[in-house]
User: Which sequence fits this backbone?
């Protein structure tokens, strides 16, 4: 259900110029990983929105919408893409001090603690 | 008293009293020392150079763990493998931002470029994350409780002093981020 707000991978330019990004690509099998941002009581709402705008190139309204989702629902999928792409985003988010994790897009997130199953830690050396 | 950051023609400007600068400097130094990677004997220098640390483990200190969190929820093994590949450079990124902010504190007038402002916001955020762990801020109610401490004459123990320091850094970061958002908007 939160999938609809997730952007395509590496389409910062596209998102900047046109806010009506396609959601068709999100169900494609080659985009199997999500970047999740978790709520915490320390990070400022303005800062989280700034990070979403400046790092991902999201519009102010999109950044605020995602930030509010983090704040109210406890978590939000803010980007999707290949494993390598979302892992790179996660490191950047940790650099900013945001609490980010990566998870496989299948399985609907939320309730499944073990999102990837066995073997998901392999093949990271790219 | 410190003045709120402002976005203007020169960039983002701010003003801090000498005592406030000293305070920030010592907070920044604390966080840097927590993030400094351990020097291990027999470490592969090439691996260290490209940011690998195959001996990295999940930090035991809560505050350090918050600065360098696990990347996969509820999967310690996958998180550890990722940590070994990326944690060293993440530490260096954070230390770089903290050092940049500390350098700016030595100048009379604080004038920040967009990149400098980003370093400051990252540094202040990490300082606040560490203070929040020390203050045991776990949820919004804890944060609200700490936020109520605004009067320096109330500072009678370590906890109330820490709460006041936390609120000062929160105010400073909020004013900085507002200025950054403003300059982001004007550049669009």
Assistant:
């Amino acid at each position: 259900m939160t999938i609809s707000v997730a952007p395509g991978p590496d389409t910062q330019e596209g998102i900047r110029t046109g806010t009506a990004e396609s959601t068709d690509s999100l169900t494609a099998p080659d985009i199997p990983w999500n970047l999740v941002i978790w709520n915490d009581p320390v990070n400022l709402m303005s800062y989280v929105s700034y990070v979403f705008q400046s790092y991902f190139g999201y519009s102010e309204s999109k950044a605020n919408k995602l930030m509010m989702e983090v704040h109210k629902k406890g978590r939000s999928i803010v980007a999707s893409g290949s494993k390598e792409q979302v892992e790179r985003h996660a490191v950047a988010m940790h650099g900013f001090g945001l609490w980010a994790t990566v998870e496989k897009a299948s399985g609907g997130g939320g309730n499944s603690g073990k999102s990837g199953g066995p073997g998901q830690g392999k093949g990271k050396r790219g | 008293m410190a003045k709120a950051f402002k976005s203007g023609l020169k960039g983002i400007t701010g003003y801090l009293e000498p005592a406030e600068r000293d305070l920030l400097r010592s907070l920044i130094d604390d966080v840097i020392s927590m993030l400094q990677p351990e020097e291990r004997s027999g470490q592969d220098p090439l691996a260290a150079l490209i940011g690998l640390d195959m001996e990295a483990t999940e930090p035991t200190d809560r505050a350090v763990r918050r600065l360098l969190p696990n990347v996969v929820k509820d999967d310690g093994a996958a998180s550890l493998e990722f940590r070994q590949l990326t944690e060293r450079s993440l530490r260096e990124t954070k230390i770089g931002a903290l050092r940049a902010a500390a350098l700016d504190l030595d100048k009379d007038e604080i004038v920040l470029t967009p990149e400098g402002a980003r370093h400051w916001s990252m540094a202040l955020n990490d300082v606040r994350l560490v203070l929040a762990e020390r203050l045991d801020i776990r949820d919004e109610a804890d944060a609200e409780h700490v936020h109520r401490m605004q009067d320096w004459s109330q500072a009678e123990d370590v906890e109330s002093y820490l709460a006041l320091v936390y609120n000062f850094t929160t105010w400073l970061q909020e004013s900085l981020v507002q200025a950054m958002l403003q300059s982001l908007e004007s550049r669009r």
Summary: Chain B touches chain A at residues 66-75, 77-78, 81-82, 85-86, 89-90, 93-94, 97, 118, 121-122, 125-126, 128-129, 132, 137-140, 142-143, 170, 173-174, 177-178, 180-181, 184-185 (CB under 8 Å). Residues 44 and 53 of chain B are 9 Å apart (CA to CA). Strands of chain B lie at 3-8, 11-15, 110-112.
